[in-house]
Amino acid sequence: MKFIAFLIAAGISTILSAQQPAFITDSLDIYANREMKAWDVPGMAVTIVKDGKVVVSKGYGVRKAGTKDPVNEETLFQIASNSKAFTATALAILDFEKNLSLDDTVRRWIPGFRMNDPYVSAHVTIRDMLCNRVGLSTFQGDMLHWNTKLSREELINHQWLHQPQFGFRAKYGYYNMGFVIAGDIIKHVSGLTWEQFVEQRFLKPLQMTRTSVSVKGIRDDKNAAAPHSRWEGKQVVIPYDDIDNIGPAASINSCVKDLAKWLQCQLDSGKYNGQQVVPFQALQETRKPQTIMPNPSALFPGMHFQAYGLGWQMADFYGKKIYYHGGAADGFLTHTCFIPELNLGFAILTNTDYNSLYVALRYQILDAYVGNPYRNYSSIFLKNTLAARDKEDRDVAAWKDAASKKPAWPVNPEQIAGPWGNPVYGNMNIAVDKAGNVTAKFQNHDMINATMQYIGNNEVLMNYNTPMWGITKGKLILKEGRVVGIEIGISDFVDPIPYLFQRTGSAAGR
Known about the structure:
Elements: H1 2-9, H2 22-39, E1 43-50, E2 53-61, E3 77-78, H3 83-96, H4 106-109, H5 118-123, H6 126-130, H7 142-145, H8 152-157, H9 176-190, H10 194-203, H11 215-219, E4 228-231, E5 234-237, H12 247-250, E6 253-254, H13 256-267, E7 271-272, E8 275-276, H14 280-286, E9 291-292, E10 306-308, E11 313-317, E12 320-329, E13 332-339, E14 344-350, H15 357-370, H16 377-404, E15 418-422, E16 426-432, E17 438-442, E18 445-456, E19 459-464, E20 471-479, E21 482-488, E22 499-503
Antiparallel strand pairs: 1-2, 1-14, 3-6, 4-5, 7-8, 9-10, 10-11, 11-12, 12-13, 13-14, 15-16, 15-22, 16-17, 17-18, 18-19, 19-20, 20-21, 21-22
């Protein structure tokens, strides 16, 4: 009994059995600690469920860099897009209970809803929203959506302004707002908000007592991991994302102890502790492939297809079908994966947004359980990441060097002072102080601003005050000696599409 108590105290909920691969029983701790150091990951938590039992549930490292507060199995992380599976499953339950159909149009439940194309507005369905096939490209519009002060309703009403990048149902494009829109339908059907439905139908029956659905749940918790990001070459602690307004896409906070219960439910046909929490037919609906995704990397010869279902991605892996999803919030990268044929599931949570260790460990665990030879994916990913990071650092250094030489602006900076508007984002206001310093503030993100420095060739260095948007390069659009537009971008981690701002209001005549 003392031995069992010791294991539980160490964060291992169930004794590792002889059936577990050697990587799990002998090497996981060594691997985790070594690779976390290589990636500069402050903290990580891992759970593995096999044959109905939790065989690993533990933390590594610290909740906040520079402290000694350890990560354990109850440490909270923002799991971001791992929230999507909860939202899709909620709607699959409502479909199973015949309260709605996943093939209902969005307009049946939100009559005024519209998108850019009238045909799409009339025909787009709940299913379309849950499988990333509405015609928008990956992360399109998220400069506005992420950490914005706009309400959920305002964001939903804003969708008609987004120009599609390809045809309706023609191509995969990861669309966060699709889950927000679909999740909002829950209240129209059930009388419960998305938050209430998730708590009542999942968190309570699964006894996920540490899991919450808003930023307050992690901000106020004493055992919460701090978010970390890379900023000007250093690992820094950053604020928690406040993404309650896009909750159905991203706002759940959880820990590996709780996520193990979610995985047990997935692997036991919707049951937990003998209770049918989710109808198995609803789970099966979420696992049907809906949208073809880009081909897997050549690094994985045992993977031949990838598809998106409803809140889950899926692929084959050496003859086994795997279901998985990642989650990326500012300061957190996380992953959930399960393989019904192996009765195996696991979750990996990290508290920095600059690592691929969370994905590398996924493949190490998969390889271990399918019997593949050991291959250190972390070292492969790290080599590629360091190369990309070095290029990024060189680019930023070159832009800063150009700015330090203070080349002359093509126009007097005073001429670009005032409001500039983009139809999707809203307004950006530019100010010039007496010393000639140029700054930009953003209508829908009160906490974000940027310094703008001219670097030549009609280009400006946009140095945002947060790692969330990063350090990027913008462009002045000139016509007949006047600036008629300013094209800016933010970090690809949030939104890879540049935004063109043009004069608004009385300033348009300048």
